[in-house]
Amino acid sequence: MANHLQLGFQDASSPIMEELIEFHDHALMVALAICSLVLYLLTLMLAEKLSSNTVDAQEIELIWTILPAIVLILLALPSLQILYMMDEITEPDLTLKAIGHQWYWSYEYTDFKDLSFDSYMIPTADLTPGQFRLLEVDHRVVIPMESPIRVIVTANDVLHSWAIPSLGVKTDAIPGRLNQTSILTPRPGIYYGQCSEICGANHSYMPIVVESTPLSMFETWSSLLSS
């Protein structure tokens, strides 16, 4: 959950998000090193008089050709690793289907015979103390913790996007197409997200709430909802 005036990322609540934050810090340090080097060279050029040896030096030309290539490799390798990790779908314990509508979400637990529901935003006038405006829904998505979950995302009308920042998930919901992603929560908690694709007048009123619980609590919840 983001705080007011927060400048950084939300606390990572999944292994993928932890990797994304580490890569962000890595890329930021590389950018800081590049900026520091360029600033030093500019200061040196302004303070020192260039000689013919400096202008025509082939060694410097070789360095400023090879050095950017090395920097790109340092950025590309961890980026590709995370990209493949995000695309990899392990053997899931549960499959969840999220369907975007104007302007609410529908969810289907395909491993159960009859477990589906619509999730609407709770109006501001109906909120209880402690609930968050524009983020609370009447039916939360409940998943078991420490279990790989496959999420299939699609839409029924226009483009939507199923996004939860703290879990490192953002998958486009496209009519007539099934996109999939995976989530794994190492601890219980409540994770908030919103539709991240402009989908019409009420685009900002499509929140997503995922509640991660122990397996025993999830089994109790699913049995009550499907009965």
Automatic annotation (TrEMBL):
The keyword Electron transport applies. Binds a copper A center. It catalyses: 4 Fe(II)-[cytochrome c] + O2 + 8 H(+)(in) = 4 Fe(III)-[cytochrome c] + 2 H2O + 4 H(+)(out). It holds the Pfam family COX2_TM. One of its GO terms (cellular component) is mitochondrial inner membrane. Residues 1-90 form the Cytochrome oxidase subunit II transmembrane region profile domain. It is found in: Mitochondrion inner membrane. Its cofactor is Cu cation. Keywords: Copper, Electron transport, Magnesium, Membrane, Metal-binding, Mitochondrion, Mitochondrion inner membrane, Respiratory chain, Translocase, Transmembrane, Transmembrane helix, Transport. It is a multi-pass membrane protein. This is Cytochrome c oxidase subunit 2. GO terms for biological process: ATP synthesis coupled electron transport. Gene3D superfamilies: 1.10.287.90, Cupredoxins - blue copper proteins. The chain crosses the membrane at residues 27-47, 62-84. It comes from the Eukaryota. Belongs to the cytochrome c oxidase subunit 2 family. Its main location: mitochondrion. Coiled coil: none annotated. CDD domains: CcO_II_C. InterPro entries: CcO_II, CcO_II-like_C, CcO_II_C, Copper_CuA, Cupredoxin, Cyt_c_oxidase_su2, Cyt_c_oxidase_su2_TM_dom, Cyt_c_oxidase_su2_TM_sf. Component of the cytochrome c oxidase, the last enzyme in the mitochondrial electron transport chain which drives oxidative phosphorylation. The respiratory chain contains 3 multisubunit complexes succinate dehydrogenase (complex II, CII), ubiquinol-cytochrome c oxidoreductase (cytochrome b-c1 complex, complex III, CIII) and cytochrome c oxidase (complex IV, CIV), that cooperate to transfer electrons derived from NADH and succinate to molecular oxygen, creating an electrochemical gradient over the inner membrane that drives transmembrane transport and the ATP synthase. Residues 91-224 form the Cytochrome oxidase subunit II copper A binding domain. One of its GO terms (molecular function) is oxidoreductase activity.
